[in-house]
Amino acid sequence: MTRILIVEDEQDIASVLRDYLRHDGYDTEHLADGQQALERIQADPPDLTLLDVMLPGLDGLGVLRGARACTQAPVIMLTARAEEIDRLIGLELGADDYICKPFSPREVVARVRAVLRRTAANAPHASTQGPLVLDETEWNASLHGLPMQLTRREFRLLQALARHPGRIFSRGQLLELAYELVDDVTERAIDSHIKNLRRKLGAASPDHDWIRSVYGIGFSLEAPAR
What we know:
This protein has 226 residues and is of the alpha/beta class. The chain is built from eight helices and twelve strands. Strands 2-1-3-4-5 form a five-stranded parallel β-sheet, with helices on both faces. Strands 6-7-8-9 form a four-stranded antiparallel β-sheet, covered by helices on one side. A three-stranded antiparallel β-sheet has the order 10-12-11. α2 runs parallel beside α3, α6 packs across α7 and α7 packs across α8. The mean pLDDT is 85.
């Protein structure tokens, strides 16, 4: 059964959403706290998350940022703040859709169905950059067909770089994109993980430097020219 996590601190709204989604055949779980929701997603990602933007403690955008470091399962944001900047920030972090309050529960169910259909049809089992293959379901990476023994954090860092090849990311941006909780990681740790990734990439591809350093700015992934 498809599992839906509802992250909403207004109990009345959460109860209505649970009733409508259960009636439509979904298995639902409700949490009202952002930090608890992020920990739940990291431990056992649901098939889809309905995520309120305004939450006590860790807000919805913080939950979304942390969730995207460990899962690509769809997230629909629920918000009473319809300003364009919120919409753009959420979508850039990886939200799949937005629903503005007040809303019809039937509309939410319809949007859930639509997002699940779309993501199921388009969900990649692996992403590639030339000979570099990242299996996002098994957390495995290979280069020229050779498996790379990456730690979970190294995989997330390489994954963040590979999603936008050629784009230069600052250390701060990589902290947000590649790690669940940035308060237990320093920017200096990024340099250490980049060094390890370079060594492991170089072992399988000694003729190409996959990660480019831009002095004073950050790093980018550079696939070899075909």
